[in-house]
Amino acid sequence: MNKVILMGRLTRDPEVRYTQTNNTLVASFSLAINRRFVRQGEERQADFINIVAWSKLGEFCSKYFKKGQQVGVIGRIQTRTWDDDQGVKHYVTEVVAEEAYFADSRRDGDMGSGDFENTFGNTFGNTMPGSMGSDFETSSADDLPF
Fold first, then answer.
1. Distance, CA of 77 to CA of 50 (rounded, Å)
2. Whole-number Cα distances in Å, 92 to 15, 80, 82
3. Where are the domains of the chain?
4. What is the pLDDT of residues 6-42, one digit of tens each?
5. How many other C-beta atoms lie within 10 A of the C-beta of residue 29?
6. Would you say the pTM of this structure is higher than 0.85?
7. What whole-number distance in Å separates Cα of residue 22 and Cα of residue 42?
8. CB–CB of 102/110 below 8 Å?
């Protein structure tokens, strides 16, 4: 099984490009993820993980994610290689996003999930407001078993 769940802060705004073959949107960004433990006398360290989001999920990320925001990403690890113009082989490991969520707590003046849906509508079908890529369907409070 290849499944990754990450929560961290964007180190930069997502960068958008399009594939040459079929003009598919690809958004790239990286997350700074604090390590869980701090050694005595040292500063907290972070890992910087590269994320790639394709098509509609990439469009969502490029439109709503900004540098410094805390976000959650669910996806899979992928490795790939390529040769550059000088024949040097390059290796990269990245997370291919399958779902992406806002993870910041609400601050004064920020939009809450209800404000998001009221402002932008249910743009992405039956996904939760503030998320993209989830198959979770929302229901009315009357349908809940508790």
1. 10
2. 17, 6, 9
3. 4-143
4. 999 999 999 999 999 999 999 999 999 999 888 889 8
5. 26
6. no
7. 48
8. no
Q: Which of 64, 44, 43 is nearest to 53 (CA)?
A: 64
Tokens 């399009």, located at residue:
18
Q: 1.10.10.10, 3.40.190.10, 3.20.20.105, 2.40.50.140: which CATH number matches 4-143?
A: 2.40.50.140
Q: Look up residue 58 and give its two tokens.
A: 């990439």
